[in-house]
Amino acid sequence: xxxxxxxxxxxxxxxxxxxxxxxxxxxxxxxxxxxxxxxxxxxxxxxxxxxxxxxxxxxxxxxxxxxxxxxxxxxxxxxxxxxxxxxxxxxxxxxxxxxxxxxxxxxxxxxxxxxxxxxxxxxxxxxxxxxxxxxxxxxxxxxxxxxxxxxxxxxxxxxxxxxxxxxxxxxxxxxxxxxxxxxxxxxxxxxxxxxxxxxxxxxxxxxxxxxxxxxxx
Length: 217
Fold this sequence. Notes:
Number of domains: 1
Number of strands: 12
Largest sheet: 6 strands, mixed
Strand order of the largest sheet: 1-2-3-4-6-5
Order of helices and strands: EEEEEHEHEEEEEHEH
CATH superfamily: Imidazole glycerol phosphate dehydratase, domain 1
Shape: globular
CATH topology: Ribosomal Protein S5, domain 2
Distance between the termini: 36 Å
Structural class: alpha+beta
């Protein structure tokens, strides 16, 4: 059975990538530095299938939530200098994944552009609002999401979201309204981001061309 992912690509400033063909809404990205090597294969119009390995099991679990609840097909492999600090891996995965979404969207014509979701998980309630308008910005309101989740440092999540918003060129507003269990708090954010991105990237037949009065994003 053929896979949902494209292959091949050209190197552009440290990124090896294939731009999505018209209406294909797929992209391959490879980001390789002296610290990390990250490969992403993404199909926006998927079924929530995923194969993810970053060397950080909790982070893999979070990215799986994004793919599953956003109905994106995602294959992501990341190798990094975890013996130094997971920060490099988290940041470069965010940059590569954001680049993949950006390339899969192409010129962003005919998309809804905006999306938002609020997701509960037991004691925790998280929310995400996104604008794919071409201007990167992160507003992070998850001050209670700190400390260790098993062996994982919750502070690294903000670095991932910042890198993702930068590469996607999106306004990304994220928050945990309340919660007690840090695992639940983090998981609500990734589930909410998946659902918000699903809405924002969706094609809408009522939208003709670029969804902006400026005529471009």
